[in-house]
Amino acid sequence: IGKGRIVRQGAGVALLSFGTRLGEALAAAEKLQAFGLNPTVADARFLKPLDEELVARLASTHDVLITLGGASVGDHDLVQSALQPHGFRLDFWKIAMRPGKPLIFGHLGETPMLGLPGNPVSTFVCAILFVRSAIAAMLGTTIEQPLHKAKLERGLPQNDARQDYIRARTIMRDRMLCVEPFAVQDSSMLSVFAAAGALIVRPPRAAALAAGEMADVLLLGL
Question: How far apart are CA 211 and CA 164, in angstroms?
Fold first, then answer.
C-alpha cells in the first residue's frame, strides 16, 4: 500500500494516474504519441498514503506533470491536500466552464502541473481545451482549434454563468453540418461523449437558441 509504479517510461510529459484512471492515462499516452511525444505513464494508485518518492522523481525528471483523478471542487478535492506538503504551489483552481470546473494548475517544485478532473468527460474536455494547447506552447508552436457553424436540430435554453461545452451528435443534411445535443449531459456519462461528434460552445449568459438556428461548435476527432 502506498507504492506506485512506472507503467510506461518516456520523457518530457508525465501522466500520473490516481485511483482507477490508469486505462485513461494509457489511452492519452497513445494520443500524445501521434503528436511526436513520448510520455511517461505512472500509476500512483493511492493519494493517501502518497508515494512521495515516485511523485518527486516524476516532477524532477519531466517538463510537465499531468494528474488524472482525484481533482474535484470543495472538500471532495484530494489532489491538492495530498501534494501541498510536498511542495505543490497552486496557481489557479476552478474554471467557469461545464464540464471541467475542477481543473487545477500549479507547480510541483519548478515543474508545471495540470490536475484534470475526476469525472471522465470533464477529463477529456479539459485535455482537448487545455492540455493540447499547453503542450503545444511548450514545444514552441500553437494548435488550431477553430469553431465551426452548425444548425441546431433541437433548441437550447439560455445559458448560466459558465461557458458550456455541450456534447452533440453531428449530422449532414443537404450538405449542411447539423448538430443534435444529447439529452443527457452528465460528466460521468462516457458513452455519450464517445458518441459525440462535436461540442456546442455556449458562452456565459448566452441567449436561448431555437431549433434551426446556428451555433458555434468544436468538432471532435480532428
Answer: 18
- 175-191: average pLDDT: 93
Please classify residue 148 by burial: count the beta carbons closer than 10 Å to its beta carbon, then call 0-12 exposed, 13-18 middle and 19+ buried: middle
Residue 221 burial by CB count (10 A; 0-12/13-18/19+): exposed, middle or buried?
exposed
CA atoms within 13 A on the CB side of 164: 21
Mean pLDDT (whole number) for 151-180? 97
pTM (two decimals)? 0.86
Question: Is residue 1's pLDDT more than 60?
Answer: no
Instruction: Give the angle 221-185-183 at the CA atoms, nearest 5°.
Output: 100
Residue 217 class from Cβ within 10 Å (0-12 exposed, 13-18 middle, 19+ buried)? buried
- Return the sign of the alpha-carbon dihedral for residues 212, 197, 145, 14: positive
CB atoms within 10 A of CB 39: 26
71-87 tens-digit pLDDT: 656 555 667 777 888 88
